[in-house]
From TrEMBL:
Pfam family, one: ECH_1
Family (UniProt): Belongs to the enoyl-CoA hydratase/isomerase family.
Superkingdom assignment: Bacteria
Organism (species): Streptomyces fumanus
Official protein name in the record: Enoyl-CoA hydratase
GO MF annotations, alphabetized: catalytic activity
Length: 245
């Protein structure tokens, strides 16, 4: 099988590219495992100063793969790994992001999106909740905006994503937006970066330590529920679920 996560390195920056176009970079069990391995390798590499997480195609990530979903514990571990990695992780988004894919963005230290990208928390529309991804999301994004978008599943654009704290910045040329960010990271001392990141992520990691077990159990319960079965079936059949009015 071809790798689902491509790896490159240039001038002390490792780039991990989600490359699973067949399912719109959805978080399958295989992709989650491969991304976790790539992050571990980058974190252990003394030649890597920072990590860029990006994607091929027009979708950064469509969320959980409904045909081959990851174990909730594995997804929690991946999100925590992003937050706890001793190197800054920068998300580069030029496509659309849905549901669990937004958890990846929230777990990154810095995130930039192109103005053509769009975002939506679609969990409620298939009968589940953004439980696990709330761990990195709630400490970092605007609570009023999250209440609206998580409860309604509405789509919003990159400018709104930046306004509510899901993105650090948005622009027509995402590489131009990230150029000064990467230049700054390359000039920073490695240990200083690691210790500064530790200070900035302490509250997020506390949320993982306090709530991860309960939210993992909730995710498993909801995905096994009759409403989730109906919602996922409706999604795959491209029709409205039975509760839509």
């Amino acid at each position: 099988m071809s790798p689902l996560v491509a790896r490159t390195r240039a001038r002390a920056v490792a780039t991990l590219t989600l490359d699973s176009p067949g399912n719109r970079n959805a978080l399958s069990a295989a992709l989650v495992a491969e991304l976790a391995g790539a992050l571990a390798a980058a974190g252990a590499d003394d030649g890597v100063r920072a990590v860029v997480l990006t994607h091929t195609g027009t979708v950064f990530s469509a969320g959980a793969d409904l045909r081959d979903p990851p174990d909730p514990d594995a997804l929690v571990a991946l999100l925590r790994q992003l937050v706890a990695l001793p190197k800054p992780v920068v998300a580069r988004v030029t496509g659309h992001v849905r549901a669990g894919g937004l958890g990846l963005l929230a777990a990154c230290d810095i995130a930039a999106g192109a103005t053509t990208s769009s975002y939506a928390f679609t969990e409620v529309r298939i009968g589940v909740a953004p439980a696990v991804i709330s761990l990195p999301l709630l400490p970092r994004a605007d609570p009023r905006a999250l209440a609206r978008y998580c409860l309604t599943g509405e789509r919003f654009d990159a400018a709104e994503a930046a306004r509510i704290g899901l993105l650090t910045a948005a622009g027509e040329d995402v590489d131009a937006v990230l150029a000064p960010v990467l230049a700054g990271l390359r000039r920073a001392a490695p240990r200083a970066l690691a210790e500064t990141k530790r200070l900035l992520t302490a509250k997020v990691l506390s949320a993982f330590d306090r709530d991860a077990a309960a939210l993992t159990a909730l995710t498993a319960e909801l995905f096994a529920s009759p409403q989730a079965r109906e919602g996922m079936t409706a999604f795959l059949e491209r029709r409205d679920p039975e509760w839509a009015v």
